[in-house]
Amino acid sequence: MIIILLNLHNDKRSINCKNYTNSIQNIFLYEVFMEKVLTGRKENYSQWYNDLVIKAEMADNSVVRGCMVIKPYGFAIWEKMQAALDKMFKDTGHSNAYFPLLIPKSFFSREASHVAGFAKECAVVTHYRLKNDPSGKGIIVDPDAKLEEELIIRPTSETIIWNTYKNWIQSYRDLPILVNQWSNIVRWEMRTRLFLRTAEFLWQEGHTAHATKEEAFEETIKMINVYADFAENWLAIPVLRGIKTASERFAGALDTYCIEALMQDGKALQCGTSHFLGQNFAKAFDVKFTSKEGALDYVWATSWGVSTRLVGALIMAHGDDNGLILPPKLAPIQVVIVPIYKGSGQMQEVVDAGNKIKSKLTAMGVSVKFDDRDTSSPGFKFAEYELKGVPVRIAVGPRDIQNNTVEISRRDTLEKFVVSQDILVDEVLRLLLDIQTNIYKKAIKFREENTFKIDSYDEFKQLIEQKPGFYEAHWDGTPETEEKIKEETKATIRCLPFNSVDEPGKCMVTGKPSSQRVLIARAY
Q1: Which residues lie across from 210 on neighbouring strands?
Q2: Is residue 140 part of a domain?
Q3: What is the DSSP secondary structure assignment for residue 25, as one 8-state letter?
Q4: Does 482 lie in the same domain as 341?
Q5: Pair (204, 165) in one structural domain
Q6: Domain that holds residue 77
Q7: What is the pLDDT of residues 19-35, one digit of tens each?
Q8: Is the predicted pLDDT of residue 17 greater than 70, yes or no?
Q9: N or C: which end of the chain has fewer CB within 10 A?
Q10: Is there a contact between 474 and 455 (Cβ–Cβ < 8 Å)?
């Protein structure tokens, strides 16, 4: 146990803390903490992910099957994502609104492909009242309170929104409508995983209405680019933009555009989608407008969304065997200050120094936590904040005060170095920018090293088992070939990438002509 202690913290000052001067007490504390160690990524990536979500206090499983409880630390990350995205939406002219959670069942039947796409995932409300069981055995559904029409708990909001838009739109003067909604969604999943796939999740869904096809298409592309910008510049996750195949597009859309990211286990994760809906929903709900020329036409539509799945992406793209690695832009705590002292004689001086550093950093817009708890040792705190992915840790003790220095540790590389307090603020600001950039560069390098061009189907089937990753291959464009790939390899065509140059070739499966390579991977 002592060896583990030294390997984890490698700092003899970590045992010098009020109330913890006895090394036996410290070893006991570390034994308690070491029960929280993570399964190694190479040992079992799925278990590593589950361990990390739970032990970094991001979320818990709920008593409600398939649902999760997002804990304050996990929700703080989502709140920072919300704030950044919300600003990006408003900067592009969108406004927030809110629509009902419950949708009449008949609304779904109006757009055939939409109902077919979501029918198996819908939770249905059939009654509106409970009553005491006449037998005295608790509460039952009142059979006399059956709804005339069942209500669907929204799996997405196109139907209820387009029914509403019918009342908002009469003329070209009412267009465009650029609305976003922050809400919860229910899709009845059989196999769930925290953040990645749960029966209920949080998301935003944009729903826009336009006078022309060109405006709607421009909006669709604009928003997938907004998502890509957010993924790369905030999440520090490189993404590939592209268009989905017909079998993978959103139910009710003419085209679906996506951003795809590669996780550390070589699986793809769809991180956002933007849908060109054409006039499908306008026709389904009879939403027409009078043009400038006086003609009557159906409105053109888009919808687009991202969800709390992005929190899962953040974990899987950057985390290591020690815990989370959070990009500073989305870290709830960007800097943690840990005081190190021995006895009450040193405590006040060190606490005062820590609070002074905190004030300076906070004044510069840095999110800082000064952890002066006397119920945990510094070493315990070091391990805790490493697990939680705090980008920068500052340790300050009597020796540091005497030398006008502090010790800084950066989470992404685990490097430690000593810095003069005179330049500390500038150094922390520089370091936060450098960590954000370094995390992104590391993810880019990983994707490049795990992206392969392939021309032989036999070789692909062999390699996908040995080297999961992104595969660029020719496809003949038929759903039959796409389904064959999926059935035989469990890999799917993620998208036809935007940046793919015209490269005539032959489908790796059938040998038929192909105009460009598509992106194929196993996916979450």
Answers
A1: 300
A2: no
A3: H
A4: no
A5: yes
A6: 72-103+156-318
A7: 333 333 443 444 455 45
A8: no
A9: N
A10: yes
Residue 136 has pLDDT above 80, yes or no: yes
Q: Determine the pLDDT at residue 139.
A: 95
Beta strands in 374-500 (DSSP E): 392-396, 405-410, 416-420, 451-453, 470-474, 492-497
CB atoms within 10 A of CB 77: 23
| Phi, psi for residue 511 in degrees, rounded to 5 | 80, 5
Q: What are phi and psi of 425, to 5 degrees?
A: -60, -50
Phi, psi dihedral angles at 406 (to 5 degrees):
-140, 160
Reported pTM = 0.92
* Both structure tokens of 47: 């278990």
What count of other Cβ atoms lies within 10 Å of the Cβ of residue 434? 15
For residues 48 and 153, give the distance between their C-alpha atoms in angstroms, rounded to a whole number.
33
13: Cβ contacts below 8 Å, ≥ 6 apart = 340, 378, 395, 397
Question: CA 86, CA 203: separation in Å to the nearest integer?
Answer: 12
Q: Could you tell me the two tokens for 129?
A: 């009242």
Residue 248's pLDDT band, with cuts at 50, 70 and 90, is: very high
Are residue 288 and residue 414 in the same domain, yes or no? no
Kindly state whether residues 253 and 396 are assigned to the same domain: no
User: Taking a C-beta distance cutoff of 8 angstroms, is the pair 100, 127 a contact?
Assistant: no
- The encoded tokens of residue 233 equal 């510049």
Give first-to-last CA distance, the chain, whole Å: 38
CB proximity list for 340: less than 8 A, separation 6 or greater: 13, 14, 16, 17, 350, 378, 395, 396, 397
Show Cβ contacts of residue 76 under 8 Å, excluding neighbours closer than 6 positions. Answer: 332
SS3 state at 102: strand
SS3 288: strand
Strand 240-243 vs strand 255-262: parallel, antiparallel, or unpaired?
Answer: antiparallel
Which two structure tokens, joined as six digits, stand for 457?
């189907």
What pairing do the DSSP bridges indicate for beta strands 59-61 and 68-70? antiparallel
Bridge-based pairing state of the strands 335-339 and 368-370:
parallel
Q: Of 419, 442, 465, which closes a domain? A: 442
Q: What pLDDT score does 12 carry?
A: 36
